[in-house]
Amino acid sequence: MNIPVFKPLIDKKTISAAVKSLNVGWLGMGKSVDEFEKKIKSICDLSQKYVVAVNTGYSAIHTALMLMQIKKNDEVITPAFNNIADLQSILSVGGKIVFADIDKSLCLDPLKLEKLITKRTKAIIVCDYGMNLANHDEIIRIAKKYKLRVLHDAAHSFGSIFKKKKIGSFSDITMFSFDPVKTITCIDGGAIIVSTKKERDLAQKIRLMGMGQPSSVMYKNKRAWTYDVEVHGYRYHLANIHAAIGVSQIEDFGKIKSTRVKTVKFYNKNIVDHVFLVKPVLGKGIVPFIYFLRIKNNLREKFMEYMSKNKIDTGIHWQPANKFKLFQKLKNSHLIETNKVAKEIVTIPLHSNMQLRDQKKIVKIINNFFKYL
Ligand SMILES: Cc1ncc(COP(=O)(O)O)c(C=O)c1O
Question: Coil, strand or helix: which one is 97?
Answer without folding.
Answer: strand
